[in-house]
Write a structure and sequence with these properties.
The complex is a heterodimer of chains A (242) and B (293).
Chain A: E1 2-11, E2 14-24, E3 29-34, H1 40-47, E4 53-60, E5 63-64, H2 70-76, E6 78-81, H3 93-100, H4 109-122, H5 124-128, H6 139-152, E7 157-161, H7 169-184, E8 188-192, H8 196-202, E9 205-210, E10 213-219, H9 220-225, H10 227-233, H11 236-241
Parallel strand pairs in A: 3-8, 3-9, 6-7, 7-8
Antiparallel strand pairs in A: 1-2, 1-4, 4-5, 9-10
Chain B: H1 2-32, H2 39-56, H3 61-89, H4 94-116, E1 132-134, E2 137-139, H5 141-163, H6 165-175, H7 177-182, H8 187-213, H9 219-234, H10 239-259, H11 262-279
Antiparallel strand pairs in B: 1-2
Helix pairs in contact in B: 1-5, 1-6, 1-8, 1-9, 1-10, 2-3, 2-4, 2-8, 2-9, 3-4, 3-8, 5-6, 5-8, 9-10, 10-11
Classes of the chains: A alpha/beta (242), B mainly alpha (293).
Chain lengths: 242, 293
């Protein structure tokens, strides 16, 4: 579904990604793990076209999308849940969800209603909070809005950037249960996650990034048992708690 | 009672003009987070191109006014495309961009001076300037048209912003253009729309107020300042707060002018606004949605 070849990108003149290649098949959940500064978020933002591509190529469904704009990429169904949630704080939960469905705004009304029902079924608490301003919600609830907003767009590929950052452990567990459910529904996802243990447990395939390069890749269970990966990215306590 | 009515009417007329400028300033600000200091110049352009199309080219009003609006829309588009967008793409601070709009204002005034010269021009009126007396208060259809246009545009903008998906996208772009882009919204197009829309509102205001004020190349800056005062007084972030601020300034001005001297009106109003801002720094109605998250 998605193929990245020799992707170089960064901020201004400074290159952060030094030629990253990876691919995601339809229905697959792929995770990228790596330390802070490895370039994981840079990669996600480059895929969303928020950062300029210096060289390399991105293909989606066999089509070259390297030169497309950020909103074009959304039109294709590549939807990002940004790090730090980035809600429209002064707007209500309902309005945030409506903005999420902007990509499919011309779809039949019934389809939009179904989609909203699906999201509210996934996160019943959002129905209670519908008319509240997003900024007044708790961190966990805000993350539900962020994920719900992305799902409203009817994503074909969902990019999740540090979904659980700064959330309480119990909320993190809930989030991963939700992702598990979305995986069962067949949603293709690229998961950038600091909780490497949980991410590897969920994912089919994984890439390990360090300082702007892919340094290892393989089926997620293999990487989970890999000695070096365990040492570098999975603390002992994380493994036993799993 | 009659005096009171006359006061209210003249305050409402001037207030509507300030409110229309404030409304369009707030509209642009709402999407771009920049005060367009060329906004008053669109009123000037509206008044003077009414002279051009209706007096010089002798076109009938119904053809002339749409032409005026097209001219203003085009210039508004150019201001966004040649000043706002290049500066934003280079990552300029809002203050720098505002200086850019001030440069546009100055270019517009200079160009208008070359076209229309330095003299005050008579702007042809779309509605009658003859007094009609209703309930003992004398007014003119032109005056009433200004108030009606303001009321209509305020309702229209309210409906657009708060009752349509398009309006929701405008508000979203104002809050965070990058995140709006992640929703698939073309943020730059939305911002361009806000500039063009405000330019059209400015042009219409110019065509309506021109016959009362007279057309002059330097009339724009005074209106920008009054409109900006309206925005500050009412509160940033909501066009309606700006509109309320404009009406308040108009009424205040009329009252001060009636009981004292119109010469004192401005310093007194500035003083009052200053006092009000010390008490309520976010304006009368506060910052509804102005906070970028």
């Amino acid at each position: 579904m998605l193929r990245i070849e020799g992707l170089k990108s960064g901020y201004g003149k400074s290159e952060v990604l030094h030629g990253v290649s990876m691919s995601i098949n339809a229905g697959q959940v792929v995770t990228i793990i790596g330390a802070n500064g490895a370039g994981k978020s840079t990669l996600v933002n480059t895929l969303s076209k928020l950062l300029p591509i210096m060289s390399g190529r991105i293909e989606f469904d066999g089509r070259d999308i390297t030169a497309l704009s950020a909103s074009d990429v959304v039109d294709l169904g590549i939807i990002q849940v940004p790090e730090g949630r980035k809600l429209f704080g002064p707007l209500t939960v309902d309005e945030n969800l409506t903005l999420g469905s902007y990509r499919v705004r011309h779809a039949p009304k019934a389809e939009l209603t179904d989609r909203r029902k699906f999201v509210l079924d996934l996160f019943p608490r959002l129905a209670e909070r519908a008319t509240q301003r997003a900024a007044t919600l708790s961190g966990g609830e805000q993350q539900m809005v962020a994920l719900g907003r992305a799902l409203m767009a009817g994503p074909r590929l969902l990019l999740l950037d540090e979904l659980t950052l700064g959330l309480a452990p119990i909320v993190i567990d809930e989030m991963f249960e939700t992702l598990e459910r979305l995986k069962r529904e067949g949603l293709t996802m690229l998961l950038v996650e600091q909780r490497a243990d949980a991410a590897l447990a969920l994912a089919d395939h994984a890439y390990v990034m360090a300082t702007g390069d892919v340094v290892a890749e393989g089926p997620a269970p293999d990487l989970r048992n890999d000695e070096r990966v365990r040492k570098a990215y999975l603390g002992e306590s994380d493994i036993t708690s799993d | 009672m009659q005096t009171f009515g006359i006061l209210i009417l003249s305050g409402l007329t001037n207030g509507s003009v300030y409110a229309l400028v404030g409304l369009s300033l707030a509209m642009t600000y709402g999407a771009s987070r920049v005060i367009n200091f060329a906004q008053g110049e669109f009123v000037m352009l509206g008044a003077l191109s009414t002279v051009l199309f209706v007096t010089t080219f002798s076109l009938p009003m119904v053809v002339g006014i749409p032409m005026v609006l097209i001219v203003c829309a085009t210039v508004g588009f150019l201001v966004e495309r040649l000043a706002y967008r290049p500066l934003v793409r280079r990552g300029s601070q809002p203050l720098t961009i505002m200086i850019g709009t001030l440069a546009c204002a100055s270019i517009m005034t200079g160009t208008a001076l070359l076209i229309w010269g330095p003299n005050q021009l008579f702007v042809p009126n779309a509605f009658s300037l003859e007094g009609v007396t209703i309930a003992g208060i004398t007014s003119t259809p032109q005056q009433l048209a200004i108030i009606a246009t303001f009321a209509f545009l305020m309702a229209l903008i309210w409906f657009m912003l708060y009752r349509t998906t398009f309006g929701l996208t405008i508000r979203a772009v104002g809050i965070d253009p990058a995140v709006a882009t992640l929703m698939g919204i073309r943020a730059e197009t939305i911002i361009a729309f806000s500039f063009v829309f405000s330019a059209i509102v400015g042009g219409l205001t110019g065509g309506l107020v021109g016959p009362l004020l007279g057309g002059h190349v330097s009339m724009g800056i005074m209106l920008t300042i009054k409109g900006f005062m309206a925005v500050i007084l009412g509160g940033m972030g909501s066009p309606f707060a700006a509109a309320a601020g404009g009406i308040a300034i108009g009424l205040l001005e009329a009252t001060v002018a009636f009981y004292g001297n119109s010469f004192y009106a401005e310093p007194i109003i500035f003083g009052l606004i200053l006092m009000m801002l010390i008490i309520r720094p976010t304006g009368l109605l506060g910052e509804w949605e102005a906070n970028r998250k």
